[in-house]
Amino acid sequence: MKSLLTALFLAISLFAKGQNLYIKTYGNQTNKAVIFIHGGPGGNATLFEATTAQKLADTGFYVIIYDRRGEGRSADPNAKFTYDEAFQDLNSIYKKYHLKKAILLSHSFGGLVATLYTNKYPQHVSALVLAGALFSQQETYNHILNTLQKKYSNDAEQLKRISYVENLDKKSAAYRKGCFELAGENNFFKMPKPTDYSKNLYTEYETGEFFKTNIRNKNAPLLFYQNEKQNNIDSRPFLKKIKTNRIPVFGIYGKDDSIFSLVQITSLKNITGSNHFAFIENCSHYLFVDQQDEFINQIKKWFH
Asked: Which residues form a coiled coil (predicted)?
């Protein structure tokens, strides 16, 4: 009786946590399901939801948006910020919407979540899409710091800052934060020549309702590095294994997403295959806003 009550409590607890997730759907439930997995740790899906979710759904997909537990609009003071916890969130979505399979459309850090999930639950994934997604973390950090060392070769003050970050514990939240802060300050995430259309999308987002819920949990990265044993991972071995399970892997990246080296991108393209890879001109990290039409058309081309 005691074990039965314990099991029941755990089931109710997981169910309750699943219901606490911010989840929104767009499109017809009879269409192919696409689950968007946002960046982080500590991020949210507001930018994608505000700009792209409905437009992608309008092309014939059932688009599911959610914020991971403890991130964005899914407030949870007890969140652990581990990959297993993120898997529980995804499994609760599959259960809630009676999904057998879905396309996982993953952005930035979400690419690691999606890849590891697909590796663990291949039966739930019809295709894995890496959209400006991380896949070899240490190479990305090395590339950011090496690029900036060359840029500031004659600037002692900047080189001192770069050196400070470089000498931090590479398995720490502080190291990750330092690398991405330097990248942000140097416009690594911005498209070089914003189009009128992309500028309008960003402006509409920043002045609209979704931006008011652009909640960032600053403690999430710290807790992630504290609680998750797998950090600074290279997910390419997992991607190769996923392909052997006959799950197609796709990559779509901006040519001006400066957190990735060409060597990294080439290595990923070699895994996906050229027919499953798109490299978009005048486009950086937020490619679904930078070049929205091309992004959506590419997803349509692959899955319709």
From this structure: none
Are the beta carbons of 178 and 168 closer than 8 angstroms?
A: yes
244 membership: H or E segment, kind and range: helix 236-244
DSSP string of 169-212, one letter each residue: -TTSHHHHHHHHHHHHHTTTTS-SS--HHHHHHHHHHHTSTGGG
pTM of this structure: 0.92
- For 141, counting Cβ atoms within 10 Å of its Cβ (0-12 exposed, 13-18 middle, 19+ buried), the class is buried
Q: What is the distance, to the nearest Å, from the Cα of residue 212 to the centroid of all Cα atoms in its chain?
A: 21
Domains of the chain: 21-137+189-303 (3.40.50.1820)
C-alpha to C-alpha distance for 54 and 156, rounded to whole angstroms: 48
- Residue 76 CA, chain-centre distance (Å), reads 20
Which residue in 25, 18, 126 sits closest to 76, CA to CA?
A: 18
How many C-beta neighbours within 10 Å does residue 82 have? 18
Residue type, 221: P
**In the chain, where do the E strands start and end?**
22-26, 32-37, 61-67, 102-108, 125-133, 249-254, 277-280
Cα 71 from Cα 216, distance rounded (Å): 7
Which residues, listed in sequence order, are joined to residue 128 by a DSSP beta bridge? 104, 249
